[in-house]
Amino acid sequence: MNDQESSAPIAMASMDDTARADLAIVVLGIADDCMLQGHRDSEWTGLGPILEEDIAFSSMAQDELGHALVWYNLLAGLGETRSPDLLAFTRDAGDWRNAQIVALPRGEYPFSLMRRHLHDLAKAVLYDGLIACGVAEVAVAATKLRQEKKYHLIHNRAYIERLARSETGRGPIQAALDELFPFALGLFEKQDAHDRLAAAGFIPSQALLRERWLDVTCSSLAAAGLRPPAHRAEEAWIPDVDPRVGGRSGRHVPEQVALLEAMQGMFRSDPEATW
Amino acid sequence: MYGDPTADFESDSKPDGQDAMPHYSREWNFDPYHQAMAFARRRAPDHASADTEWRVWEVFQQAKRGEHHAHVGSIHAPDAEVALVLAKENFARRGACVNLWVTPADAIHATDYEDADVFIHTTDKLYREPAGFQGLRSSRIQGSSRTTEAKGTST
To answer: Which of A35, A40, A172, A226 could be A221's S-S partner, Cβ–Cβ 3.0 to 4.6 Å?
Structure first.
């Protein structure tokens, strides 16, 4: 890591073909995470717990779609010929590389809030790592997107802390955490392309990202009075549950099919239409 | 309902003779909904719990450091921290903003529209405004230019 942080970042065009292909795989996974997180959270538009939070949550959902667009656009420089629209609206479930967590149905509000929080923390940790690492275009994108994560985390924390200390809120928010934690670990699913890039020093390893995420996530949730399904062993947090993986190789929760039908239906009805 | 929520209340609650000296002591809420709620509460205190919403906060946004904060609207929130969180996405997600203020709406005191006549300028106040001095200034400039001309012709 330290070597990479001190060396000048390399442009994507200067990477060899294998590394570029690997980076395309990793970036597609990040983009798909953002796209479906944004879509799921947009399902709260008009249904939010109060008007002001409806607007805030919907606005953050739009942020995620914006983040997805940044990553889809980046793929053009890595040999992807399909436009962001085609990537988002014409692929079947098996071709998506998102982690399973973002496709889970929105559930009750505490569930959506906790899902967003666990994912926001994972992306914040990832973007911090990408900023410090070796690919110029990726670092630029990560810097921009990391900035917007700051507010997302302030927002989530404000609500989670209040739910956790209220009589009626504690049960639902803890239940959401228990249910989502294995899926959140799936955001760090082992991926050969990621491992090769990490070995070459282009991006931080999944193991390192996961360790940082566990630390910041479990420590802050425990401080808020919740019980993350993990225990402390010396300095590190060790999960007590197995990760729900498969998303990065195209195995998804059954609900993703219906999600994609709802999200892609309009576009697929006339893919040639100009909007 | 939103027209003049305090009128009815004022007429039957104020002790006789108190109007002899006009004053600004009427309670006032910034937004019409809560004006009406405040009125309803005073009319029927037992039904105050009919309003189960979070309290109202007024939001002030500063577009640039050093500029005035400007009132941009109001929001519901349980406390100041959540009010700031919600104010950001509700008011500052498009326009320029470097700083937000929130304050409980009921901390704001306002004049009454019934007393709006105190703001009316009944006599010509032009002489008190900067523009009132313009004639004087231009006549001085004309005077000085005439002097210059006079000098010009004399040389």
So the answer is: A226
Q: How far apart are CA A185 and CA A189, in angstroms?
A: 7
Task: Write the residue in B77, B78, B85 that is nearest to A155 by C-beta.
Answer: B85
Interface contact flag, A158 B90, Cβ < 8 Å = no
Q: Which residues contact B64 (CB under 8 A, 6 or more apart)?
A: B96, B98
Q: Work out the minimum CA distance from B128 to partner chain A, whole angstroms.
A: 45
Question: Tokens in use for A158?
Answer: 């404000």
Query: Which pTM was predicted?
Result: 0.81
Quote the tokens at residue A176: 């959401």
Amino acid letter, A72 = Y
Distances (CA, A) of B128 to A137, A164, B122, B124: 61, 60, 14, 9
Nearest residue to A71 (alpha-carbon basis) of A165, A170, A11, A142: A142
CA A125, A48, A179 angle in degrees (round to 5)? Answer: 50
Average pLDDT over residues A98-109: 97
Task: Compute the distance between CA of residue A152 and CA of residue A175 in angstroms, rounded to an integer.
Answer: 21
**Interface contact flag, A56 B81, Cβ < 8 Å:** no
Contact indicator for A114, A160 with CB cutoff of 8 Å: yes
Which candidate from B81, B90, B93 shows the least CB-CB separation from A158? B81
ipTM score assigned to the predicted complex: 0.86
Check CB contact under 8 Å for A162 and B82: yes
Contacts of B75 in chain A (CB under 8 A): 52
Q: What is the 3-state secondary structure (H, E, C) of B17-54?
A: CHHHCCCCCCCCCCCHHHHHHHHHHHHCHHHHHHCCCC
CATH number of A13-269: 1.20.1260.10
Where do the structural domains in chain A lie, given as residue ranges? 13-269
Scan for tokens 């982690």, then name that residue: A99
CB contact under 8 A, B90 and A52: yes
Which chain B residues are within 8 Å of A59, Cβ to Cβ? 89, 93
Rounded to the nearest angstrom, the minimum Cα separation between B82 and chain A is 6
Q: Is the pLDDT of residue B64 over 80?
A: yes
H-assigned helices in chain B: 7-13, 32-43, 80-91, 134-154
Q: Whose structure tokens read 């005191």?
A: B109
Q: Taking CB atoms and an 8 Å cutoff, what residues of chain B touch A56?
A: 85-86, 88-90
Task: State the pLDDT at residue B13.
Answer: 44
